[in-house]
Amino acid sequence: MALKTLSTFLSPLPLPKHYTLSIFNPVSLNIYRKSTPLSCKSTHSHSPSQLPLSDTKLLSSEPEGTGAASPTRGDRFLERQQADEAAKLLIKEIKKTKKKTKKVLKVNTVTACCYGCGAPLQTSEVDAPGYVDMDTYELKKKHHQLRTILCGRCRLLSHGHMITAVGGNGGYSGGKQFVSADELREKLSHLRHEKALIVKLVDIVDFNGSFLSRVRDLAGANPIILVVTKVDLLPKGTDFNCVGDWVVEAITKKKLNVLSVHLTSSKSLVGIAGVASEIQKEKKGRDVYILGSANVGKSAFISALLKMMAQRDPAAAAAQKYKPIQSAVPGTTLGPIQIDAFLGGGKLYDTPGVHLHHRQAAVVHSEDLPILAPQSRLRGQSFPVSSKNGMAGKFNSNGLNGFSIFWGGLVRIDVLKVLPETCLTFYGPKKLPIHAVPTHEADEFYKKELGVLLTPPTGKDRAGEWRGLETVQQLQINFEDAERPASDVAISGLGWITIEPRRESLGISESNFAERTKELHIAVHVPKPVEIFVRPSIPVGKAGAEWYQYRELTEKEEEIRPKWYF
């Protein structure tokens, strides 16, 4: 056997390149004797702490055997590689532990919020949103149950008290720690940069006023499921096929990324199952945000949605215990409320309502707000009324021309030039009284009866603070077919007025009708910030199904047009 081979075989340790042998004579080796101990000296001085991890281990370890039992170079090489890999894994674990520690600290610094309204919990201002007494706060904090706290304001709201907490643009003046409407909108600005599924709510009674014309600024390019709420309030006999088509026609012009349209009622749960199914289908692991204007019914919708989802999803069933508070006060929700409603990833968020300055709710007193919220089916009130109601004598052969109609103290309609058979039908809250007087007496009548017959505002004290109907808009409405309503005049935050030429009522011949002008002229008076919309008439009641006409669509329109469900 070659000497080189023998020396390799008998050596107890493989030596690094920078180590040399001080005494080594291959001739004196005897294979029948025990191996001679070798002393090593380094040409460079290194302390053990300066050596690599693998080298330190090899130098300090005892020989595992001699002769044929000693490890080969291959064994040593494998040991060194394993040691290096173990060191790398240890470093990775240390880094992961540091990251986890940082994340935990970040979560713990998040302010706890009321589960009813989303306001940050605080113990200093009794009249401000989010207030909790100190004893309750400390007890819940000790047991890690801050997410189960309902603030004092929400407790009062749940018992019917009308407590506003939003000031500024679309809100109210005064109040401790009022949240401004602009601050609430700012809390939603991050949505445009996130990948989320938007569930946008619109009130069918106030379709134009609650639609959020600048919704793309909030939602960005995220897909939208449009939910039309409170359809149970529409007049009896309404054909929802016609209403669904009317809604889709209205949103098609707005060029939004709408996946589908759903007609729903949170009270009767009509259409809620379809929304739940669509959310599960389209969310794809994303967070789901419920978006809409103030007082559109977001919290009531979430309660109905959780109730429907709880039948199949245990997470939704557990979330029902701490659901957002419901109230007629615009601005009940003051911050995003996270709801763990899905098992398969993603969260459900109730968001603060977007306060719009152009709605009636922004100008009336907080205690008058319940008057603006319809509680039962709408029943249209028509003028001129039939002789059965005993008011036909008010109107002469000229019909409504020369009359003014007051809708509570919030709206005044001056009929300037219409056909003698023209009829105005008011759809809105039943508690709002309607009075008709000659136009030349209208100003005096309004000053005298405001706060008494014409409410809201309720009472002479509030009437004294009322700024009046400062905005006057002249409308010219053209029509082609007198058998169909000419249009609707929608008052933001209140309801709408359907204008019908009604040529059939007095049996006018075709020749006479052809000679008449096909224009209607009226003037609408409202408080200064409130907006007025002129739109195609919504088909409600039994008559709506008779006169509504479906538009013929091209193949391309059929493909891109969102479907509606009920």
Automatic annotation (TrEMBL):
<dbReference type="InterPro" id="IPR044229">
    <property type="entry name" value="NOA1"/>
</dbReference>
<dbReference type="GO" id="GO:0005525">
    <property type="term" value="F:GTP binding"/>
</dbReference>
<dbReference type="InterPro" id="IPR048422">
    <property type="entry name" value="NOA1/YqeH-like_C"/>
</dbReference>
<dbReference type="Pfam" id="PF21516">
    <property type="entry name" value="YqeH-like_C"/>
</dbReference>
<feature type="compositionally biased region" description="Polar residues">
    <location>
        <begin position="41"/>
        <end position="59"/>
    </location>
</feature>
<dbReference type="InterPro" id="IPR027417">
    <property type="entry name" value="P-loop_NTPase"/>
</dbReference>
<dbReference type="GO" id="GO:0003924">
    <property type="term" value="F:GTPase activity"/>
</dbReference>
<dbReference type="InterPro" id="IPR006073">
    <property type="entry name" value="GTP-bd"/>
</dbReference>
<feature type="domain" description="CP-type G">
    <location>
        <begin position="181"/>
        <end position="357"/>
    </location>
</feature>
<protein>
    <recommendedName>
        <fullName>CP-type G domain-containing protein</fullName>
    </recommendedName>
</protein>
<dbReference type="InterPro" id="IPR030378">
    <property type="entry name" value="G_CP_dom"/>
</dbReference>
<dbReference type="Pfam" id="PF01926">
    <property type="entry name" value="MMR_HSR1"/>
</dbReference>
<feature type="region of interest" description="Disordered">
    <location>
        <begin position="41"/>
        <end position="77"/>
    </location>
</feature>
